């Protein structure tokens, strides 16, 4: 395999959700392979704690931009212009590779001065199919067309689970599914204080795909016997909003604050209808939390045998599973031990090694025409 020492990657990210965490962890892991990462931030600027976390990553240079996120842009021309601007940044950064956090930005990949890898973290097409169903509305349709074009033009595609890779291939009619490189996290180790059992979730609460309404209904059924706490923003950058009536909304928390809640080892719950991976679930498993998860293909792939599964929309079953885990210490301990053991598979080192292999393959293919011409 080609050595990556000295390779410079222009990587894109946003600070709105899990892509930020993914990018920082990946950049840190790739540094061990000799890769320098220039992180171009699209969309809203990172919060102070996010920027501080970025500065702590070895081999990472933060590059703020005023470029729009593909899923917040008003027109396809804005997304295409963002791709053109990123290509210019890749030239300025003297990047050997470009790693995009959305295939839509790869539409017109011939503009880029280096081979392009695109991560399939999520997309409007597969989200709509899982959450709403039926034909795409016009505002989603043009975004999906750009994703399809980007998937076709990128040199390589990465997805965090086989289930999501297959869903992406089906929706966009790809000849080959994206390469599966599972996400990883470096576990934190805050001190626990032994609080009474409670249920906890974390993420973009405003996102319909997270299905917080079902968890709120489950909290109503529990009637305070097991407190249900939800960390994350309730207002989204596109105007989406959710109001929780029975679960307690904690608002947006820093990564350290979330880790401190998880250190109490609550019953971690995700009733998501759409979740290509679920970094918050992994963080909870690493912390030794029992997992109660919606029965969707990605969660089954990652956590089968290490979590309790319930139908996503069955708030009665969700409340029963939460109550059973909270009230039965032995049951909760068994679930927690299984989750922590499974989490050992999903490390930053494994994610970085898988991504490095994709980089090496792409660079080797890019060099092959030059070697053929020289011969």
SSE layout and pairing:
Blueprint: E1 8-14, H1 18-31, E2 36-42, H2 48-55, E3 60-64, H3 76-93, E4 97-100, E5 116-119, H4 124-131, H5 138-153, E6 156-159, H6 162-172, E7 179-180, E8 199-202, H7 212-222, E9 228-231, E10 248-251, H8 255-262, E11 267-270, H9 279-286, E12 290-294, H10 297-303, E13 308-310, H11 315-327, H12 329-343, H13 348-374
Parallel strand pairs: 1-2, 1-4, 2-3, 4-5, 5-6, 6-7, 8-9, 8-11, 9-10, 11-12, 12-13
Helix pairs in contact: 1-13, 7-11, 9-12, 11-12
Which tags fit this structure?
globular; 13 helices; 2 domains; 375 residues; Rossmann fold; single chain
What does this structure look like?
The chain is α/β, with parallel strands linked by helices and 375 residues long. The chain has two domains: 8-184 and 347-374, Glycogen Phosphorylase B (Rossmann fold, 3-Layer(aba) Sandwich), CATH 3.40.50; 199-343, Rossmann fold (3-Layer(aba) Sandwich), CATH 3.40.50. It has 13 helices and 13 strands. It has helices spanning 18-31, 48-55, 76-93, 124-131, 138-153, 162-172, 212-222, 255-262, 279-286, 297-303, 315-327, 329-343, 348-374, and strands at residues 8-14, 36-42, 60-64, 97-100, 116-119, 156-159, 179-180, 199-202, 228-231, 248-251, 267-270, 290-294, 308-310. The strands form two sheets. A seven-stranded parallel β-sheet has the order 3-2-1-4-5-6-7, with helices on both faces. Strands 10-9-8-11-12-13 form a six-stranded parallel β-sheet, sandwiched between helices. Helix 7 (212-222) packs across helix 11 (315-327) and helix 11 crosses helix 12. The model has no long low-confidence stretch (mean pLDDT 94).
